[in-house]
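Shipment paperwork, digital attachment
Item: protein structure file
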Amino acid sequence: MRIFRGSLPLTKVEHLDIARLIQSALAPVFLISGVASTLIVLTNRLSRAVDRARRLERRLEPGSAEPANDPHEIDSELRVLARRAALLNTAITMCGISAMLVTLVVVALFANAFFDVHMASTIAVLFVLAMLFLTAAFVAFLIEVRMATRALRIGLRQHAQIAIAREEARQEAKQEAKVEAAAKSASDASQRQGKSATM
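Attachment content:
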Protein backbone atom coordinates (compact mmCIF):
# COMPACT_ATOMS: atom_id res chain seq x y z
CA MET A 1 0.00 0.00 0.00
CA ARG A 2 1.07 3.57 -0.65
CA ILE A 3 0.26 6.19 1.96
CA PHE A 4 2.26 9.24 0.94
CA ARG A 5 1.47 10.74 -2.48
CA GLY A 6 3.73 13.67 -3.21
CA SER A 7 2.63 16.81 -1.38
CA LEU A 8 -1.09 16.02 -1.27
CA PRO A 9 -2.69 15.93 2.19
CA LEU A 10 -3.60 12.57 3.68
CA THR A 11 -7.17 11.44 3.18
CA LYS A 12 -9.32 9.64 5.72
CA VAL A 13 -8.48 6.29 4.11
CA GLU A 14 -4.80 7.08 4.27
CA HIS A 15 -5.12 7.95 7.95
CA LEU A 16 -6.63 4.53 8.49
CA ASP A 17 -3.73 2.99 6.56
CA ILE A 18 -1.26 4.73 8.87
CA ALA A 19 -3.14 3.41 11.90
CA ARG A 20 -2.95 -0.12 10.53
CA LEU A 21 0.74 0.37 9.80
CA ILE A 22 1.42 1.44 13.36
CA GLN A 23 -0.53 -1.56 14.62
CA SER A 24 1.59 -3.81 12.40
CA ALA A 25 4.76 -2.25 13.82
CA LEU A 26 3.69 -2.81 17.44
CA ALA A 27 4.48 -6.54 17.41
CA PRO A 28 8.17 -6.04 16.48
CA VAL A 29 8.40 -3.26 19.07
CA PHE A 30 7.10 -5.58 21.79
CA LEU A 31 9.59 -8.18 20.57
CA ILE A 32 12.39 -5.65 21.07
CA SER A 33 11.30 -5.15 24.68
CA GLY A 34 11.39 -8.92 25.21
CA VAL A 35 14.88 -9.12 23.74
CA ALA A 36 15.95 -6.27 26.03
CA SER A 37 14.69 -8.21 29.07
CA THR A 38 16.64 -11.25 27.89
CA LEU A 39 19.75 -9.09 27.53
CA ILE A 40 19.37 -7.92 31.14
CA VAL A 41 19.25 -11.53 32.36
CA LEU A 42 22.26 -12.50 30.26
CA THR A 43 24.39 -9.56 31.34
CA ASN A 44 23.58 -10.21 35.01
CA ARG A 45 24.64 -13.85 34.68
CA LEU A 46 27.80 -12.80 32.86
CA SER A 47 28.71 -10.28 35.56
CA ARG A 48 28.23 -12.89 38.29
CA ALA A 49 30.40 -15.38 36.43
CA VAL A 50 33.13 -12.78 35.95
CA ASP A 51 33.00 -11.76 39.63
CA ARG A 52 33.24 -15.40 40.70
CA ALA A 53 36.23 -15.98 38.41
CA ARG A 54 38.01 -12.91 39.80
CA ARG A 55 37.48 -14.12 43.39
CA LEU A 56 38.89 -17.52 42.52
CA GLU A 57 41.88 -15.97 40.75
CA ARG A 58 42.64 -13.88 43.87
CA ARG A 59 42.61 -17.06 45.96
CA LEU A 60 45.32 -18.51 43.71
CA GLU A 61 47.60 -15.51 44.21
CA PRO A 62 50.45 -15.93 46.72
CA GLY A 63 49.81 -14.25 50.04
CA SER A 64 46.05 -14.29 49.58
CA ALA A 65 43.88 -13.72 52.64
CA GLU A 66 41.84 -16.79 51.66
CA PRO A 67 44.31 -19.29 50.16
CA ALA A 68 43.02 -22.15 48.04
CA ASN A 69 42.80 -25.57 49.66
CA ASP A 70 42.87 -27.37 46.32
CA PRO A 71 44.34 -25.35 43.41
CA HIS A 72 43.34 -28.05 40.91
CA GLU A 73 39.68 -27.76 41.91
CA ILE A 74 39.80 -23.98 41.52
CA ASP A 75 41.50 -24.33 38.14
CA SER A 76 38.76 -26.67 36.89
CA GLU A 77 36.10 -24.26 38.16
CA LEU A 78 37.82 -21.39 36.36
CA ARG A 79 37.73 -23.38 33.12
CA VAL A 80 34.00 -23.96 33.56
CA LEU A 81 33.45 -20.26 34.23
CA ALA A 82 35.43 -19.37 31.10
CA ARG A 83 33.22 -21.62 28.97
CA ARG A 84 30.10 -20.18 30.59
CA ALA A 85 31.29 -16.63 29.94
CA ALA A 86 31.95 -17.48 26.28
CA LEU A 87 28.45 -18.92 25.88
CA LEU A 88 26.88 -15.89 27.56
CA ASN A 89 28.88 -13.55 25.37
CA THR A 90 27.65 -15.46 22.31
CA ALA A 91 24.05 -15.25 23.52
CA ILE A 92 24.37 -11.51 24.18
CA THR A 93 25.79 -10.96 20.69
CA MET A 94 22.98 -12.97 19.10
CA CYS A 95 20.34 -11.05 21.06
CA GLY A 96 21.89 -7.75 20.00
CA ILE A 97 21.86 -8.76 16.33
CA SER A 98 18.27 -9.98 16.68
CA ALA A 99 17.16 -6.66 18.19
CA MET A 100 18.92 -4.75 15.39
CA LEU A 101 17.18 -6.86 12.76
CA VAL A 102 13.79 -6.26 14.41
CA THR A 103 14.38 -2.50 14.32
CA LEU A 104 15.22 -2.83 10.62
CA VAL A 105 11.91 -4.66 10.17
CA VAL A 106 10.07 -1.66 11.65
CA VAL A 107 12.02 0.76 9.43
CA ALA A 108 11.31 -1.39 6.38
CA LEU A 109 7.60 -1.49 7.21
CA PHE A 110 7.38 2.30 7.15
CA ALA A 111 9.63 2.60 4.09
CA ASN A 112 7.48 0.10 2.25
CA ALA A 113 4.34 2.05 3.11
CA PHE A 114 5.54 5.60 2.47
CA PHE A 115 7.81 5.12 -0.53
CA ASP A 116 6.11 2.13 -2.18
CA VAL A 117 9.39 0.27 -2.73
CA HIS A 118 7.90 -3.25 -2.48
CA MET A 119 10.03 -4.54 0.40
CA ALA A 120 7.72 -7.39 1.45
CA SER A 121 10.31 -10.08 0.80
CA THR A 122 13.00 -8.02 2.55
CA ILE A 123 10.78 -7.57 5.61
CA ALA A 124 10.09 -11.31 5.73
CA VAL A 125 13.78 -12.18 5.42
CA LEU A 126 14.75 -9.70 8.14
CA PHE A 127 12.12 -11.04 10.53
CA VAL A 128 13.12 -14.67 9.92
CA LEU A 129 16.79 -13.79 10.50
CA ALA A 130 15.85 -12.02 13.71
CA MET A 131 14.02 -15.14 14.93
CA LEU A 132 16.95 -17.37 13.97
CA PHE A 133 19.44 -15.22 15.89
CA LEU A 134 17.11 -15.09 18.88
CA THR A 135 16.74 -18.88 18.77
CA ALA A 136 20.53 -19.28 18.68
CA ALA A 137 20.80 -16.95 21.68
CA PHE A 138 18.32 -19.04 23.67
CA VAL A 139 20.15 -22.24 22.72
CA ALA A 140 23.44 -20.81 23.98
CA PHE A 141 21.69 -19.64 27.15
CA LEU A 142 20.23 -23.10 27.79
CA ILE A 143 23.64 -24.71 27.29
CA GLU A 144 25.17 -22.26 29.77
CA VAL A 145 22.48 -22.97 32.37
CA ARG A 146 22.96 -26.72 31.95
CA MET A 147 26.72 -26.30 32.30
CA ALA A 148 26.31 -24.25 35.49
CA THR A 149 23.92 -26.83 36.97
CA ARG A 150 26.26 -29.69 36.10
CA ALA A 151 29.21 -27.87 37.66
CA LEU A 152 27.16 -27.26 40.80
CA ARG A 153 26.28 -30.95 41.06
CA ILE A 154 29.92 -31.93 40.59
CA GLY A 155 30.95 -29.41 43.27
CA LEU A 156 28.37 -30.75 45.71
CA ARG A 157 29.53 -34.30 45.05
CA GLN A 158 33.16 -33.32 45.61
CA HIS A 159 32.33 -31.53 48.86
CA ALA A 160 30.35 -34.55 50.03
CA GLN A 161 33.29 -36.84 49.26
CA ILE A 162 35.66 -34.53 51.12
CA ALA A 163 33.31 -34.45 54.12
CA ILE A 164 33.05 -38.26 54.12
CA ALA A 165 36.84 -38.61 53.90
CA ARG A 166 37.31 -36.18 56.80
CA GLU A 167 34.75 -38.05 58.91
CA GLU A 168 36.47 -41.36 58.17
CA ALA A 169 39.84 -39.88 59.12
CA ARG A 170 38.32 -38.53 62.35
CA GLN A 171 36.88 -41.95 63.22
CA GLU A 172 40.21 -43.62 62.49
CA ALA A 173 41.99 -41.10 64.72
CA LYS A 174 39.51 -41.79 67.52
CA GLN A 175 40.00 -45.54 67.13
CA GLU A 176 43.77 -45.17 67.21
CA ALA A 177 43.50 -43.00 70.31
CA LYS A 178 41.37 -45.66 72.00
CA VAL A 179 43.87 -48.37 71.10
CA GLU A 180 46.76 -46.27 72.39
CA ALA A 181 44.86 -45.54 75.63
CA ALA A 182 44.09 -49.23 76.10
CA ALA A 183 47.69 -50.16 75.45
CA LYS A 184 48.91 -47.51 77.86
CA SER A 185 46.51 -48.65 80.59
CA ALA A 186 47.60 -52.26 80.08
CA SER A 187 51.23 -51.20 80.30
CA ASP A 188 50.56 -49.25 83.49
CA ALA A 189 48.73 -52.20 84.99
CA SER A 190 51.58 -54.56 84.19
CA GLN A 191 54.10 -52.14 85.72
CA ARG A 192 52.04 -51.91 88.91
CA GLN A 193 51.82 -55.69 89.11
CA GLY A 194 55.58 -55.95 88.66
CA LYS A 195 56.19 -53.45 91.43
CA SER A 196 53.81 -55.23 93.80
CA ALA A 197 55.50 -58.57 93.05
CA THR A 198 58.94 -57.19 93.87
CA MET A 199 57.64 -55.77 97.14
